[in-house]
Description:
The structure is a single chain. The chain is an alpha+beta fold. The chain folds into two domains: 6-132, no CATH class; 139-247. The protein contains seven helices and nine strands; from the N terminus they run αααααααβββββββββ. The chain has helices at residues 6-13, 20-28, 30-46, 60-69, 92-101, 108-119, 123-132; strands at residues 139-148, 156-162, 168-174, 182-188, 195-201, 204-210, 221-227, 239-244, 246-247. α1 (6-13) crosses α7 and α3 (30-46) packs antiparallel against α6 (108-119). Bound molecules: zinc ion. Zinc ion binds at residues 3-4, 25, 29, 31-32.
Amino acid sequence: MQHLDPGTVSMAALDEPLDTDSQVHLDGCDACASEVRELNSVVLAARGDFAGATLESPDSQVWAAIHQELGLQPALSTDPLTYPSPVQDATPVSELSQVRAKKRTFTPKFLIAAVTAGALTGAGALWAVQQLQAEVTPTVVAQSQLDPLDGFTAAGSASVVTTGDGVRTLQITVTEDQAEGYQEVWLIAPDLAQMYSLGVVGGGTSSLVIPDHVDLAAFPIVDVSDEPLDGDPLHSGVSVLRGTLAAQAAQAG
Ligand SMILES: [Zn+2]
């Protein structure tokens, strides 16, 4: 039996609507239902609803992993579950191991840290925590102007946008569809020999998913071709627009 994937489990735990197949599976599968319940208790706790949430205190190494995973500031490197101590900063490691041996008293602030840490035990849970954090802002990681090739006058631009779930999309704008056939978008290696087709676009702005395995450093050229309706899946050799993606520096503030 195909169980729900972690993303779907997270959706269910967040009380988001599922597609019919997933919902039917969830209704009939104890294993998945139990996963959803467990994660749901984490979600409730992270939202501040501690009633009924089952919690456990994670090892401090978990916080270290979260700290690294989320790229938090050095000031936040201390496990929030540790007790304040005058010598803690000077000897964090030995202090942490002593603290771990003590019985902990939970306050809501510590509980939130605890469930966040506990959520890291599963990919789906991590996904849920990411959803609970400030809405993930799409980040532009690379950009290019698209310039017309001989015989064409359209202009355009392309941006590679990532979201918190790691999905990359190419957002491409073409001022005017000047293809005699249809416009197909490609990511091409500098030798112009290897390429991936991302899909078909018209004029205006389109969003195309970039497959996970495509290395943009190796395929930096964005090309819009004019494809005749001949059933041939290969590049026609006629390009309307082209540009080379350049990494976009992270924006300050
Ligand atoms: Zn299942």
